[in-house]
Amino acid sequence: MESSAQLPVIRVAVPLPLRQLFDYLPPAGAAASALEPGVRVRIPFGRRDLIGVLVDHQAAGFSSEVELKRAEQVLDAQPLISRQLLKLLRWASEYYQHPIGEVFAAALPGALRSGRSLPHNGWELTQRGRGLPAGAFPRAPSRAAAIALLQRRPQSNQSLKTEGISRAVLLALKKLDLIQTAAVAETDKKSRREDPPQLSAEQQQILRNLPLEGFQCHLLDGITGSGKTEVYLQLIETVLKRGEQALVLVPEIGLTPQTLNRFRARFCARTVALHSSVPAGQKVANWQDLKLGNASIAVGTRSAVFCSFQKLGLIIVDEEHDPSYKQQDGFRYSARDVAVKRAQIENCPVILGSATPAMETLFNASRGRYEHHRMRMRQGGGEPPQIVAIDVRGSPLQAGMSESLLTELRHTLANGDQALLFLNRRGYAPALQCHDCGWVAECEHCDARLTVHLRRRRLLCHYCGLQQLVPERCSACGSAALLARGLGTEQLEEYLLQNFDVPIHRLDSDVVTGTSISSKLDEVAQTHGASIIVGTQMLSKGHHLPNVQLVGIIDCDALLHGADFRGPERMAQLVLQVGGRAGRGRSGGRVLLQTHYPDDPLIRQLVSEDYAAFAAQLLLDRRQRGLPPVGQLFVLRCDCSRDSDGETFLRTVLDNARTKIPSRCRVIGPLPAAMPRRAGRYRHQLLCLAEDRQSAQMALKSLLHCAESAKRPRDLNWFVDVDPQEVA
Questions:
Q1: Whole-number Å distance between alpha carbons of 220 and 206
Q2: Are residues 154 and 184 in contact, defined by beta-carbon separation less than 8 angstroms?
Q3: Rounded to two decimals, what is the model's pTM?
Q4: Residue by residue, what is the 3-state secondary structure of 552-613?
């Protein structure tokens, strides 16, 4: 510890749940002004050392007697995080009101957060080597050639290998302290590998209307099968020719392999993946290649929005409506919204693509904040599938299917085509019930029923992961009359196997996970002849299944009248996205929508008109109720081991903050969550609905200040969720 009056200090983001930067003296022998923001520093924090990120300098130093610790080491010669990315991270911390150190940690791969050095992919001259004259080592041609190349500029391992320089020569020069390892930017030809297909008139018009100069947010609103991906490829080619890079976000890991394959087939430019299934070492290498400019295209899930780039020229958010872009724990950001802000900071265009845009995106387009481009023609001139609502009230159902759906299914298979049956419930049945006393198997840790997984002979909680053997008798009355209630994909598959003599492909997270989804779907897509695909919402993620002619939505009512106000929007998006798999190979696809509410205005509108009309009606309803995207919403949530503690804590927070909450805000609660108990924790929430973003931020800061100062039990955790995707 040392006195620091009038000394310049560095300000560091520390990877802890603390809402502030921390001040340190620079490492011994280093001037604070010489250290660039964005480098990692090793710092003492309490009784341990941590790796933080230098964010800025304290320009004036301290004028009073205070004591500061000295940072121990600067880990990077050059910033890992650019000034533009620093600005984005500070904005994200402020907007989502999340501890700044954890936000900065999200921008680095795990290996770099732990203090590891960047991998070395090349060589450069040392200070001693730079003093060598031209033509050094005249009697050692290989050494002379290596030194001559490095005197021009640092060289990558690949370029030295191409010039015939062996690793033994390089190690010999390193032993003489003439060269050292380095992270080196390689030249990338960025040439096209294959020619693009013939564009439709609509695609050509879209490309003419999409300028790639400076910041602008574009909504590419194209029906399924309209060729949005080809538009992306054409835009990326323009960016690559300018020597810039492109970031492509996809909602789930399962979509990355097919996207990568398509991009790599088109471009010679290096294309890398960024998602949680990429091995740690490869992820760091991919991250570094993007930062150095050695890779030109990144395809990744939501966390890729924080990756470093040398010269970012375009951001694409595919399936921008997908809820997977919202992080649901820890740093709860929306990758779609962060992507728009990043494009603004980087001064580059951003494309939001979807067949069913989110209400927030359509609202921004209606206000002129986003340019709205529509694609209404399927590639090849095919027609979108016809949507038909089937009234199942009072109808006998077999494995959840009406006779109308079964008749269409048999007809489709007789024609040698594929059919897709969508049921968003995995397992055999969502409940196990005693027929004699009515007992239902419930999770002992959650307010939820256990799902029957018959093939595994297990009861599973899909919320906390609890597993039990399927009992032979009722635990309440001892009866053996146990019944599986409800329908899941496993039961639907069982019925189909017993009644249809065609291949049955079940696709849910019990069968395929991660990147295996893409390979399994590719296998199914290449299968010809009659077959049936059974699956959950993973089938709605933009996969191309050219042989599907019929889509059956087994139950669309679950979301329509749920507690969450976003239910109708999600229902329509699922119906249209899954339904969009039909008729892509040729015209004539049909989507059968089973419902108990065929006369519901939203159902009728979805069937008789299109998503645009459906969304316009939803936006009108949201406007009348002041709900997002017209109003601004955030939720303050807590969980604890005793039910009463959570409500008491939130009520105390609200009482202390009430006088500081703007009049344009309405606070609802405290309320129990839709599932009050989960994983043994009782959950409560405060909802704040504001008329504008400024009022929402003022209310949020007041509530956070009171939450931080309020007394609470040790085991109570609380957090804030800005722009939540789930509020029930």
A1: 9
A2: yes
A3: 0.91
A4: EECCCHHHHCCCCCCHHHHHHHHHHHHHCCCCCCCCCCEEEEEECCCCCHHHHHHHHCCHHH
